[in-house]
Structures are given as C-alpha cells and as structure tokens.
Amino acid sequence: MKINEYFPPRKIEKQKTRCLLLFSGGLDSTLAGKVLEEQEIDILPINFKSCFFDSKNAIKIAKQLNWPLIIVDITEEELRLVENPKYGYGKNMNPCIDCHAQMIRFAGKLMEKYNARFIATGEVLNERPKSQNPKSLKIVENESGLVGYVLRPLSAKLLPLTVPEKEGLVKREKLLNISGRSRKPQLALAEKYGLENYPSPAGGCLLTDPGFSKRLRKLLEWKGRLELNDVELIKKGRILFENKTLIVIGRNKKENKALMKNALESDFIIITIEKPGPVTIIRSFEKSPQEDIIEKASLLTIRYSKGKKLPSLTVKIKHGEEIEYKKYSYIDWEKYF
Ligand code: SF4
Questions:
Q1: Which amino acid residue places its CA nearest to atom 3 of ligand 1?
Q2: Is residue 230 part of a domain?
Q3: Which residue's C-alpha comes closest to atom 4 of ligand 1?
Q4: Does 208 contact ligand 1 (Cβ within 6 A)?
Q5: Is 217 a member of any domain?
C-alpha cells in the first residue's frame, strides 16, 4: 500500500477528536463527513485507489469542500483479494464485503500515524442488500479487526454503540438513523449542506461492471491469478477470447497508444501498413497462439482499418525481435466472420 498525502492533513485543534473517514467522493461518505464535522470532529478523509477504481471523485469533492485527502494505492492487495474473496462476490466480480473490511483494516493501520481515535464510513444500513445488511456490517467490522471503532454516522442510531460514542467523543443523539435503498434522506441532507455535483452512487468501480467482470472472470479462469498488466489490457479495445488467447483491438488513437504501452515482449503486435488502422495485441496464456488465431487477428485488424475495402493490404506482425509482413488480397469476410 502506497500512501500519498494529496491534500495534506492539517494540525488537529486541541479540543478536537480526529477520525479517519473512508472517502470515495460519493454522496454517502461526503455526508458522513459532514455529519461528524457538525459536531466538531476533525475528519481526515482517506481514499483507496486501485486498478479497479480511481480517486477522481474523491479529489474533486475534497477540493470543493476544502478537505485534506490521503490517497492510498492498494492495487496489489486488491488484485489478490479479487482472486479469492472469503465472502464471495456480489452481482458481478465485486467482493464488497471483503473489500470494505480490507479498506477499514488498512485505515486502522494509519490511525496511530494520524492521531485518529476511530474510523468513520458512509455505509448505510440495508442500502445494498448483500454487503450492507446488519450481518454484513458486523462481518466487515470483525474482519477489519477494529471492533467498536467503526462508526457509520448515517445509520449509527440503528447500530450498536461504538467506543467513541461510549467515551463521549461523539454524540450519538446527533448521528442519524437512515436505512434502506431510498436516497431521499441523503438528497435532503445534501440540500441541507449545500452539496452539489456529487457523483452517482456505486459509480466508478469496474468490479461492478457486468462486461468488465465477464472479461476478468475469464482471465482468472485461464491464469488462476490476476496480473496488473492483463487487467489493464482488458480495460480497453474490442476483446476476443479464443482458446486461452486474448485478442485486443484498439478502437481509437488513445486506445492504440495505451495498448502499445501495455504490450509485453511475449505479445504479438499487429498493425496495418498502407492505411491507418488499429493496434492489435495477441496475448496467449498457453505457450504460443495458434496460427489460425494470428490470422484471425490480422484480418480483424484489416477489417477495422481504413484500408478494409482495398483489393489488398499488408499487416506487420511483431513478436519480440521477430517481424513478419503478410499481404492479404481479396478478403472474403463472410468466410471468416
Ligand atoms: S463497489 Fe468496488 S470499491 Fe466499493 S466495496 Fe465493492 S468492490 Fe470495493
């Protein structure tokens, strides 16, 4: 885990108690911070980022509210977690229970460094049927190793008393009792606090995206392990899975550039010669891709190029130091696709 004090923490005022706020930049975690601020708690927002979710919203909202912000990169830890989550996945490849527990556990490790007395989150009881029901919230707390120190300000009145409440650091009567999937109470609070332009709930985590999850599941099935480079590769382009081989075709200049950056020595890289076209990457999870797969990928590269209607077109196929040129004359697309 790599820590970045993006907007540096301020000195805690003497009479104030500090808490670390798990902060995604979404409305719920922003409101949790606002509710605590109202009772003079010094909140220090911590945002976790990885190859599946970024910090854009957290940066935007922290800047808007003039909050400090600590960004913690947990890419490696998240990859290992997604491979085999103890409490399984949600609807897609999102292991939300394990993920929340991990974030709270990591935040717990920073409590001493930042003189924080407890952790706060924007979780709302029963907002998500699987990961935020009473049992799941309890599991998250137990698994994080911080029993009693996790305060959920938006639903606290419906949950057991926490240590900061018992110690009088937080006034329970000023906390809330929100439960369920309706967003009405949160929207009313947003208005009360004058919050505008907040991001939509659960937006931004690729693990909740059905299309991406399908690709990720396939990768995991084939390789038994998730590597950062493979995950980056399946984020872009047109993707085809063929016999333990991944074919990725760039859809525009930006994706072509990103694919070139991601390419490994062992990959096959295909481009068209006479006319501009996509960059295609072939990555095999076996020894080497079969000839017919290379041919299919070459033809697809031509098909998505500006030269698809020409009588013939050449592709360059690069594999490590080896370079091969192949000219395709009349292409009977019907025959292939
Ligand atoms: S939505 Fe994504 S980031 Fe949020 S808890 Fe679930 S897996 Fe983690």
A1: 205
A2: no
A3: 96
A4: yes
A5: no
Six token digits for residue 266: 């062992």
- State the pLDDT at residue 335: 65
Question: Which residue ranges of the chain lie beneath pLDDT 70?
Answer: 201-203, 289, 332-337
Residues 195 and 124 in one domain: yes
Token duo for residue 253: 């200049």
Domain-located, residue 268: yes
Q: Do 192 and 261 share a domain, yes or no?
A: no
- Name residues whose C-beta falls within 8 Å of residue 128's C-beta, 6 or more positions apart in sequence: 90, 96, 181, 202
- Per DSSP, the three-state class of 175 is coil
SS (H, E, C) 71-82: EEECHHHHHHHH
Two structure tokens written together for 289? 């891709």
For ligand 1, mutation pick of 207, 212, 226 (most atoms within 8 Å of CB) = 207
Q: What's the pLDDT score for residue 288?
A: 73
Question: pTM to 2 decimals?
Answer: 0.91
Of 159, 184, 206, which marks where a domain is finished? 206
Locate all alpha helices (DSSP H) within 72-167, ordered by sequence: 75-83, 96-109, 134-144, 163-166
CA 265 from centroid of its chain's CA atoms: 27
Sequence-distant (6+) residues with CB within 8 A of 325 are 273, 314, 315, 316, 317
* C-alpha 119: how far from chain center: 21
Q: What is the pLDDT of residue 194?
A: 92
Q: What is the pLDDT of residue 201?
A: 64
